[in-house]
Write a structure and sequence with these properties.
Elements lengths: L14 H24 L2 H35 L4 H23 L4
Helix pairs in contact: 2-3
Length: 106
């Protein structure tokens, strides 16, 4: 670009770039090895526990709301059946989540 001869030729590789590429390859291999060990059973168990907590919470809320709506529909007590059963669903969901958190893990 400057025309003074200090630019390397386009076809040749600089030894610094080759060295950098080798170091990057070693670092990527070491990182892949390090993260592969940590991505084993422990993270899988944590993922399952998180999904179970989410299912308990959603199940309590949706189940309570559904039963409350059905009670309101057939007993014509709107909105009290929905509110009471939704509150009971929340209580049951939190009780189950607390129970899950107290169980010992391996």
């Amino acid at each position: 670009m400057t025309g003074n001869g200090s630019d390397p030729e386009l076809g040749s590789e600089d030894s610094r770039l080759v060295s950098l590429n080798k170091r990057l390859d070693r670092a990527e291999a070491a990182e892949a090895k390090r993260t592969a060990v940590n991505a084993g059973l422990e993270s899988d168990a944590n993922y399952r526990l998180g999904n179970r907590v989410l299912a308990e919470l959603l199940g309590g809320l949706i189940g309570g709301a559904l039963f409350g709506w059905l009670i309101d529909r057939f007993a014509e007590t709107s909105p009290w059946g929905l509110l009471v059963m939704l509150f009971m669903g929340i209580i049951v969901a939190f009780r189950n989540i607390i129970r899950l958190s107290k169980t010992p893990r391996n």
